[in-house]
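User: Reviewer 2 asked us to show a designed sequence for the structure in our supplementary figure. I'm pasting the structure tokens here. Could you produce the per-position amino acids so we can include them in the response letter?
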């Protein structure tokens, strides 16, 4: 019942994150096709994906102001922008065209993502509920289902220009519940006489940003490159690679639903710590995988680790800062952290160009390991503050 209530309370961001998942799952499964259409090498494709990081960082910096200006129209606005912009890869036939297209995709997707998460943090305080995990489970579920469907369509001969218009309609349908109408309310002011909030705790914001960054590196490196790893390194048939991101998305969805309960019982810090451990182990299994079955197992283990870090870190940050600082703190943590969503695939591309995809996934494991000391520092800081 707590999950059903959480979905009811957070209907708008729930739908928004589902729409992002559907889009990104389709992109991940189509990555080999888009890369081939653009005629890009591993390194060039990875660098082109940096365009999404540039666009994403720009909109995340402006996130609080955009939300304040658009109010209840924020999430529906970004849904419409995403539906339009996600069609642009159909027209990409060179590496030079891929970078600006990815930048526009980064703006539209990141704008929807950061505003959905800011809205969630506000709703968590208002209703006294943990909402992040179940909402991010919706992202992962839609991502996994979308990747599976698109992988199957690729096996049936569908190309980029066939898939993207259909997925645009799916994103539009999923995004319709983002309109909140009269139920929408801005951040409540503090009661009269309440002391003004102090300085933003930049150390804590920075540590959460690091956790988000390396988590997104691990998650999206697998989303964007596992299809190529399966089809190229392991000799999988065209379309088989889509089952890599499918496994990641579906396992993450299941673990995030479980995390809705475990986070309330175990606490954010303990959950994030052990998630980091699983993420490291899973990435190393992928790097050493001799066949498709083992690599899918490694992806599943990584998914267990990566699943709850981002939503749980968001909830943790919301508790570490004053309500009047919450939107700014989340946008600044995501400004750096979400860059890992795009830097991860770019890093994989550059390392793969020189050393191969297996070494690239070892680098992912090393970066994910940074989560462990970061959460320990936050734990010690909170204990000393009590």
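Assistant: Here is a per-position design you can include in the supplement:
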């Amino acid at each position: 019942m707590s999950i059903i209530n959480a979905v009811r309370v957070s209907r708008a961001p729930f739908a928004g994150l589902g729409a992002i998942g559907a889009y990104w799952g389709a992109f991940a499964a189509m990555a080999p096709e888009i890369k081939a259409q653009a005629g890009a090498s591993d390194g060039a494709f990875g660098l082109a994906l940096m365009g999404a990081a540039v666009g994403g960082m720009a909109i995340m910096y402006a996130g609080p102001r955009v939300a304040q200006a658009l109010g209840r129209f924020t999430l529906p606005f970004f849904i419409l922008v995403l539906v339009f912009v996600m069609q642009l890869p159909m027209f990409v036939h060179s590496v030079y065209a891929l970078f600006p297209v990815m930048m526009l995709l980064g703006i539209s997707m990141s704008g929807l993502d950061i505003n959905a998460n800011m809205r969630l943090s506000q709703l968590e305080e208002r209703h006294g509920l943990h909402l992040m995990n179940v909402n991010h489970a919706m992202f992962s579920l839609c991502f996994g289902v979308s990747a599976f469907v698109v992988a199957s369509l690729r096996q049936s001969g569908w190309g980029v220009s066939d898939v993207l218009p259909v997925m645009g309609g799916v994103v539009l349908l999923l995004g319709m519940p983002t309109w909140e109408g009269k139920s929408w309310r801005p951040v409540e002011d503090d009661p009269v006489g309440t002391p003004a909030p102090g300085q933003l705790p930049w150390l804590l914001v920075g540590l959460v940003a690091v956790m988000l960054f390396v988590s997104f590196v691990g998650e999206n490196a697998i989303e964007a490159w596992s299809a190529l790893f399966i089809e190229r390194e392991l000799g999988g048939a065209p379309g088989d690679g889509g089952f890599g991101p499918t496994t990641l998305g579906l396992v993450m969805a299941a673990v995030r639903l479980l995390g809705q309960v475990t986070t309330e019982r175990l606490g954010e810090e303990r959950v994030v710590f052990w998630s980091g451990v699983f993420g490291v182990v899973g990435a190393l299994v992928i790097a050493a995988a001799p066949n498709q079955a083992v690599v899918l197992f490694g992806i599943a283990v990584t998914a267990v680790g990566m699943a709850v870090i981002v939503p749980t870190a968001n909830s943790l940050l919301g508790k570490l800062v004053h309500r009047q600082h919450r939107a700014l703190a989340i946008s600044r943590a995501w400004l750096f952290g979400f860059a890992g969503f795009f830097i991860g695939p770019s890093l994989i591309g550059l390392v793969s160009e020189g050393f191969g995809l297996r070494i690239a996934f070892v680098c992912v494991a090393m970066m994910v390991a940074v989560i462990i000391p970061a959460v320990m520092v936050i734990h010690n800081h909170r204990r000393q503050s009590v």
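For the response letter, you might also mention the following. The chain has one domain: 2-178+199-385. The longest helix spans residues 95-127.
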